[in-house]
Design brief:
Layout (H helix, E strand, L loop, with lengths): L8 H9 L1 H20 L4 H28 L1
Helix pairs in contact: 1-3, 2-3
Organism: Aeromicrobium alkaliterrae
Function: Key component of the F(0) channel; it plays a direct role in translocation across the membrane. A homomeric c-ring of between 10-14 subunits forms the central stalk rotor element with the F(1) delta and epsilon subunits.
Subcellular location: Cell membrane; Membrane
């Protein structure tokens, strides 16, 4: 055995692309916690915006996942 690698580079790209949404989700919820700590009365509005941001960030990963399997 000479140490052959099986597979393709799409999965490596997918792994690297997963870093972006992971960082984005962390920043979104860090901003949520900070905003609620500063203004507790705005919790409902901030939570809605955080969930919307979370969905949009994860959507990019799901699209990348689909493209990785298609290509």
């Amino acid at each position: 055995m000479t140490g052959e690698i099986f597979g393709n580079l799409n999965m490596i790209g997918l792994g690297l692309a997963a870093i972006g949404p992971g960082i984005a989700v962390g920043l979104i919820f860090a901003a949520l916690v900070s905003g609620v700590a500063r203004q507790p009365e705005a919790q409902g509005t901030l939570r809605q915006l955080a969930i919307l941001g979370f969905v949009l960030a994860e959507q990019f990963f799901i699209i990348g996942l689909a493209l990785a399997f298609v290509l």
